[in-house]
Amino acid sequence: MLSHDEIQSAISARLDGEPAGLDDAVIDAHVQACPECSAFQTRAAHLSAALMYVESPHDGMSPPPDLADTILAGVDPQWRRGMASRRAWLATARVVLVVLAVLYAVWAVRTVGATDGVAPVGADGLTLDPQAHPETVRALIETAGLRFSLAVGLAMCAWRPQLIAGFIVIPATLAAFLVGFTARDVVLGWFAPGQLLSLVVLVVTVFTLVAAWVADQGLVVSQAWRALRSDPL
């Protein structure tokens, strides 16, 4: 998978009239789908147009020998630092998402293990013991399935942050749902420490997903905020 730096270097080389090293269709497809590289191309194109001709001591006006370095150096340093900062935040968030995915997977396995002894069979080995709780077993299995699904979803989001926008609604809704029931249990005196742990992990999951999405789509968020403030610059 091509990185932003590779695409941006290819854009600069193409604007400079040099071999880009990548097919134009590949570059254009990436730019169309990537707000960061699209903004870079716009800035670089404007700068390239402004520097297309420079004064020459021989024939008055001639193209500069190499625009690539000039274009890269001319891009707003603060903007480039912002890109580097967002990439660092995104890398950190992706690591946390992987850790959370592993945590949910282990949690799911432990939940399945908790079903042992909850629904024992009778002496004949065929019928349930009168003290069995098959409903509890089903609830535990469904909980384990939900936690394993969250583990898979978080792993996919860590791999492809673009998927976060479609996935985050699940843990966010679950967290909001549990907040209400946890508040009820606190009022009625039914609160258990395990409830708090589950809620805290879900809240951390949601905030990590938000942080990863903002870091990955930071340019889009920034442009939307500027549009709301009517400040295009």
Automatic annotation (TrEMBL):
Domain of life (superkingdom): Bacteria
Keywords in alphabetical order: Membrane, Transmembrane, Transmembrane helix
Record's protein name: Putative integral membrane protein
Pfam families in the cross-refs: zf-HC2
Membrane-crossing residue ranges in chain numbering: 88-107, 163-184, 196-215
Domain Putative zinc-finger: start-end pairs: 5-37
